[in-house]
Task: structure prediction
Amino acid sequence: MFTERPGHAAGRRHSILLAAALGAALFMPAGGACADELTPQQQLAHDIYKELLEIDTTTATGNTDRAAQAMAARLKAGGFADEDVHAFSPAPRKGNLVARLHGSGARKPILLVAHIDVVPANREDWSVDPFKLVEKDGYYYARGSGDDKYMAASFVTNMIRYKQEGYKPDRDIILALETDEEILDRDALGIQWLLKNHRDLIDAEFALNEGGGVGLKDGKPIRNSIQTSEKVSVSFLLEVKNSGGHSSVPRKDNAIYRLAEGLVKLSQFDFPLHLNETTRAYFAKSAQFESGQTADDMRAMAADNPDPAAVARLSASAVYNAQLRTTCVATMLQGGHAVNALPQLATAKVNCRVMPGEPMDGIKAALVRALADDQIAVTQIDQAVLSEPAKLDEQIVGAIDKLSGEFFPGAVVLPVMSAGATDGSYLRNAGIPTYGHSGLANDINDIRAHGKDERVPVKSFYQGDEYLYRLVKALSGGT
Result:
């Protein structure tokens, strides 16, 4: 419950007026927002978002240290003391940021987490420059516009807003912007570095992270997801070696052909059905948004032994299939060394997303069986990060339920397992329950993260920013 302190009536009137203005702007037409239509708070969110998006933070050529320093400068300009903002550079071009808004200390802190690195984007593949914020047809286009600079920008904006309001929560609010999430923190320079070197700065009762968005169907919100667990990412190298020779004397045991035949077999292989509590609930609740056979098939997933025909029909959808089982897919391919020589080496990289609780040692064995060729060597090339799912806390779910009803009427609050991977696994393993929940609404059939022309609806950006502002306050209490 919020109480008003003496002398704060004027500030409260200002907050009420600002909230009213923001509320009116939340549901702006989908066609977008011109600069003169934005409230001062929305303009700040836009400017921070633009600054972050236009800093290249890809692993190969980018600089997350520059992004972390830029956000540190924003926070300090917004009123944060130097001692409450820490920009770290654990390696050249690598940056993390931790900032703290002090509360009364009545409860343990909440941690707001967002990664500031992004996957590569080639200009020739996109219809716009991927490293410029472009507003077009009611959308904001840019690499990282959804994954994950929307949350990073919103968290920074809202931290400044809390500070300037004089907000005093019941718990400290900690912001952590971290690097290298998109490469699974393989060099331990991102969230692992913070946990190892500055655990005291980020220790919290629980964390909000990416991973659960608002799904729109025909323009209407149907679900507001809470990600409590995620599949485990692990990759393998497939190799075929050969003595080679001159291309004028072809041989049947061509390394490229042999590898290709194995990959075709892998493409036809399915891991067994493996449902868990979260995925069963996902299908049971999602059935209400479908009709006919699809709805019936989703309801069938609640049975101890689901109908194989229903499983087969749902498996035809890549999205549903990823919720039903472990998947392994070839993502990189290389072979040969000269156009006029037989290949001496052909390689492929295969990325697997393993269901939580499934034994990791069985994945390589399953790949070997699927390839069915002892000439294809299979080697695991990274370490899997296992983590227990976060339990659905009544306090968190209750706050989300209430706020979701205001912002996204009719949407079902839906626990989900992410088919992807986030840094939430490292936090959960460190004893910080982590929930993927962004408040960002997008069409369920137009998910472009990691792909060409990544974009988010303009309306959803500002609506999500306000949603996160309100949610963090609801979870933090105070005045």
Confidence is low (pLDDT under 50) at residues 1-32. The two ends are 8 Å apart (CA to CA). The first strand starts at residue 85 and ends at 91.
